[in-house]
UniProtKB/TrEMBL annotation, chains A, B:
Belongs to the ROK (NagC/XylR) family. InterPro entries: ATPase_NBD, ROK. Pfam families: ROK. This is ROK family protein.
Length: 309, 309
């Protein structure tokens, strides 16, 4: 896949709640030496622990590859992120508050560092290289343990100081009652498994197994799956009504369900909309590497910025 | 109010579903000869009928003012609008489909014409001159007979080919049942009056009278008013979660309620949000003239575009 890196490679990190991925993305866009490690957790110094691991891996990659193979580093993290100032504002899972990742990493590594939000980076990669390539007004929705989105209007990412894209915490009708609950508690892969367990008392190996059971016609599994689809459709329609979104790209673990998810989702969205635009709904194209590729794109942009300044 | 019109006045029209407003906005931003007429309705030729009235009024204003008083015309209309191509795509109330307002008006009037959406224009005026002046990520929500919004991210309007801002048609929990209904059917001034009449069988003079009755403690009026507030809060929270909106400006007829609307609305939004940004919620500053002032701003921009090309 050509990233358009005409003259420089970068070293990209995608730090997740459980794992962190790293790899060298070369000048012609090839990913080399892809590695996956457990994300280091240190409740006392959560940001420091991650930076130290990045520093260590940077040393190893530098040792493994000839000088000049990569000229910048990209780091993406979850949570609330201030991309402009390179600060991790808050991560509920990893525990930091206002940690200046970019500046500290640049000091320690001595080369330009780009810092971004994991979902925003994955979204940018889908917009530039993946499933949303031909669209200007799009939402890339990452549906896994939780749910978050990268929103684009007129081809530009909506950032709002790091506060945009928290669609997983927007309200949807409670399928079990009259009130409302957050989308993430019904529509995420995590919620599908959890709600199925709660209803049936049966242990399952994630949303995938609930889908398998639904495919055999098991009523409880079908019910939980359909409620997840309805919840996702509700939130997609909110986005379409407010923003006129023309394409919705579904990534994250749940997108592995493919048409078993997308076909009923399209149908539910179509039923719920009136005169509004009907968005194209499709699966993400870059899979689990989207965040790392987005991180590489950001590192490349940062390098150009430094070279031009 | 200074519009920053250093060197040229414009003639601005704001075409509504019932009335159309017009006025000369001078070089220093003063509004002169403000007029209000019934919007001409002709089911056979809805766009033509409006253009003819604009042509006639243009003639009258040209006769009334010295040559050079206005050098461009601004026209705003409701419905779905393609601002880029100057086309009225669709208006449910006024009846046109794909009517090329801008090009026809330029041919007939012989001076530059800007064409825009009424709510988007009112929103731009509030962003540039009014209540949203100091914000980059904002929603200007016009709550009257219906509900529509102008959405801004990073200071730029979200257009999406004319499809953005239809928040009045986004779903909210049905206060009378378990399902969902569109925001407009619960939260608009029109819906408040209609729902009160339906519940009580009592005729009222609009949402204003329902509010007056609620202030005296009448339970049905209080219920209908509070349900409207809850519905508006639900939709505002959707916008905040998706876009990280930092300010919500309420315009339209219902904003006349002032703090009787805004105070419970702030409280309901605050209760419904978790870690998300708390938006500033305030009333529109430009009142009923926002659409016409936005129309004038667009006309001014169009004039600069023509002069520079």
């Amino acid at each position: 896949m050509a990233l358009g890196f005409a003259d420089a490679g970068v070293l990209a990190f995608d730090v997740g709640g459980t794992d962190m991925k790293s790899g060298v993305v070369t000048a012609d866009g090839t990913v080399l030496a892809l590695q996956r490690h457990k994300t280091p957790l240190d409740p006392q110094r959560p940001g420091e622990a991650i930076l130290e691991r990045i520093e260590q891996l940077y040393g190893e990659y530098s040792h493994q590859f000839p000088a000049g193979t990569f000229e910048a580093v990209g780091i993406t993290v979850p949570g609330l992120v201030d991309e402009v100032h390179g600060v991790g504002i808050y991560s509920a899972n990893l525990g930091w508050r206002d940690f200046p990742f970019r500046d500290l990493a640049e000091q320690r590594l001595g080369i330009p560092v780009a810092f971004g939000h994991d979902v925003a980076s994955a979204g940018s990669a889908e917009m530039e290289l993946g499933a949303a390539r031909e669209f200007q007004d799009a939402m890339v929705m990452v549906v896994g343990t939780g749910i978050a989105a990268a929103i684009f209007t007129s081809g530009r990412p909506v950032t709002a100081g790091g506060f945009a894209g928290e669609i997983g915490h927007a309200m949807v009708p409670d399928p079990d009652g009259q009130g409302s609950v957050i989308l993430e508690s019904v529509g995420s892969a995590g919620a599908i498994a959890k709600r199925y367990r709660r209803i049936t008392g049966t242990e399952v190996d994630g949303a995938r197994e609930v889908l398998e059971r639904a495919m055999t016609g098991e009523p409880e599994a079908l019910k939980v799956w359909n409620q997840a689809v309805e919840a996702l459709a509700f939130s997609i329609c909110q986005c379409v009504s407010i923003l006129g979104t023309e394409a919705v790209v579904i990534g994250g673990g749940l997108s592995a369900a493919g048409e078993a998810l997308l076909e009923p989702l399209r149908s539910a969205v179509d039923d719920a909309l009136d005169f509004q635009r009907r968005p194209v709904i499709r699966a993400a194209a870059l899979g689990q590497d989207a965040g790392m590729l987005g991180s590489a794109l950001k590192a490349r942009a940062r390098l150009l910025e430094v070279k031009l300044s």
